[in-house]
Design goal:
Layout (H helix, E strand, L loop, with lengths): L10 E5 L7 H10 L3 E3 L8 E4 L1 H5 L3 H7 L5 E3 L1 H10 L11 H34 L47 E3 L9 E8 L4 E12 L4 E9 L5 E8 L1 H16 L16 E3 L10 H5 L7 H13 L1
Parallel strand pairs: 1-2, 1-3, 3-4
Antiparallel strand pairs: 5-7, 6-7, 6-10, 7-8, 8-9
Length: 311
């Protein structure tokens, strides 16, 4: 017998792996609160509760639910908080379709704050120069004080040859058929990200690679989790190059707060930090040791050297 009737009008299907819960636990919660639990998407399904990994990978149930307008695809928080509050909460706040848009919006707000502060600092500096209050400056000095241009940071994550063999992430199953994409200008589409929060004792990694086969099949591979663990993974894209590249650049922006072309810029507060690699520098192996989410990078480096010697 149900303990409450909070979910009396709901038929809920689960998809994905939920940290701290089994699907058996969650299905019991659904039934205990008046709802019906379904194992497959059908016309009777009202809600699909999905994990982040399953949503990003666009699993079978996610695709099926997307084709049916009446199904609300929500996060686990909707289910748990509805039960906690004692009432079925409005799903709009918990829709998975809103998660990517929220991440981009937060990044834009952060960028606006930084730009506003920079503009204000510039105005203050010019005002002080006009009033002769800057040490060593006079009212007659040029408002745009001449300063040596900032030294452009060298991008070592560029290949001298598109034939360079970049190791595919150890968790990916496309190693035999695909290669890491290298653009015409030598840019290697391999992003290793790290986020460390000492206060919460968190050390997380996020790996993103744009992979292509000789038959023109392109996908974006992602893997994330705590450093030292395998974590979760997802394959993005519909095999088209433009879509796979769009997925790569979008995921990089979502996680780092930076556009891919600006990857060498200062890391954004609260976001993942981009770890630059030098694939062609045989004199140092420190970069490989520093990569998060890797069990052994020295073997990968050795394979790159072997390929270069063959050429």
């Amino acid at each position: 017998m149900a303990k409450t009737d909070i979910l009396a009008d709901c038929t809920v299907v689960l998809s994905g792996v939920f940290e701290g819960y089994t699907q058996g636990n969650l299905s019991k919660l659904i039934r205990d609160n008046g709802g019906k639990y379904g194992t497959k998407i059908s016309g009777a399904t009202t809600h699909l509760v999905v994990s982040e990994g399953e949503w990003e990978g666009r699993g079978t149930k996610v695709k099926q639910a997307s084709d049916l307008a009446d199904i609300r695809v929500v996060s686990l928080d909707w289910l748990l908080k509805s039960i906690e509050e004692g009432e079925k909460l409005d799903e709009d706040k918990y829709l998975m379709a809103n998660s990517d848009a929220t991440a981009v919006k937060d990044d834009d707000v952060e960028d606006e704050d930084v730009n506003d502060k920079a503009a204000q600092d510039s105005k203050t500096s010019k005002k002080r120069a006009r009033n002769g209050k800057v040490k060593g400056a006079s009212p007659e000095c040029d408002e745009e004080e001449q300063k040596p241009p900032a030294k452009k940071q060298k991008d070592s994550q560029k290949a001298k040859s598109t034939n360079l063999n970049i190791p595919i992430d150890e968790g990916c199953n496309l190693k035999g058929s695909h290669r890491v994409h290298i653009d015409g200008d030598g840019t290697i589409f391999d992003a290793s990200l790290n986020q460390t929060n000492s206060t919460n004792n968190n050390n997380k990694f996020y790996r993103i690679q744009l992979l292509g086969s000789q038959h023109g099949n392109f996908r974006t591979w992602t893997r994330w989790g705590r450093v030292g663990e395998h974590g979760q993974s997802a394959m993005l894209g519909d095999s088209d190059f433009d879509d796979a590249r769009k997925q790569f650049e979008k995921k990089f922006k979502d996680k780092s707060g930076l556009a891919w072309k600006d990857r060498l810029s200062a890391p954004k507060k609260g976001k993942y930090k981009f770890i630059e690699r030098n694939y062609e520098d045989d004199s140092s192996e420190e970069d490989d040791d520093d990569l998060p989410g890797a069990s052994s990078r020295r073997a990968s480096k050795a394979s790159v050297k072997s390929e270069e010697r063959k050429k």
